[in-house]
Amino acid sequence: MEVREMSDGRKDIMPLVWTAWDTRDEWSRTFAALYGWMLPRVMDVEIEWDLWSGENWITLTQGGQVVGYLGVNLPLLVCVEPLASVEWPYPLQVIRLKSLDEEEIKCDIDIFNQCFGTYLVADPSLTPEPFNADSFSAKDLWFHTI
Fold first, then answer.
1. Closest to 73 (Cα-Cα) out of 114, 13, 130
2. What is the pTM of this model?
3. Comparing C-alpha atoms, which of 80, 29, 82 is closest to residue 57?
4. Helices 109-116 and 14-22, interaxial angle, to 10°?
5. Cα separation, 107 vs 116, whole angstroms
6. Edge-to-edge strand order for the sheet containing 76-79?
7. How far apart are alpha carbons 92 and 85 in whole angstroms?
């Protein structure tokens, strides 16, 4: 399944997020940790993850640059090249983007609230900008759901 490209160039990731939600029982923190352990051994990537703080994403880097975020509680990978061109096994849903910083994705806020929790609608006093589900970047997704 791929993301739906909108006429304005944004990508609607709702189908992939929903599929990740539907298959979450086939995923676990342990499975995500195994991916995190394995990826640096088979690809030129490093991982950043504070397991003990309960982070929801494993950050994947290459040469000091972030190239992806691997979901810990949902089988979801948001990434750019070189990870975007890899065939990933089921149940992992892959959101392939040109940039992790560009606000090129959107998703129904109700789907996000169900899949990631209602804390996505950020309290403006806690974050510089509230989450905008109509136009956000992968980095925004990571920040608001870490």
1. 114
2. 0.89
3. 29
4. 30
5. 12
6. 46-48, 57-62, 65-71, 76-79, 93-96
7. 14
Q: Tell me how far apart the terminal alpha carbons of the chain are, to the nearest angstrom.
A: 25
Beta bridge partners of residue 12, listed in sequence order = 4, 106
- Give the model confidence (pLDDT) of 90-138 as tens digits: 999 999 999 999 999 999 888 888 898 755 444 555 555 677 888 999 9
Identity at 32, one-letter amino acid code: A
Q: How far apart are CA 23 and CA 113, in angstroms?
A: 17
Per domain, the residue ranges of the chain are 9-145
Euclidean distance between CA atoms 131 and 136, whole angstroms: 8
**Token reading at 83:** 């990870």
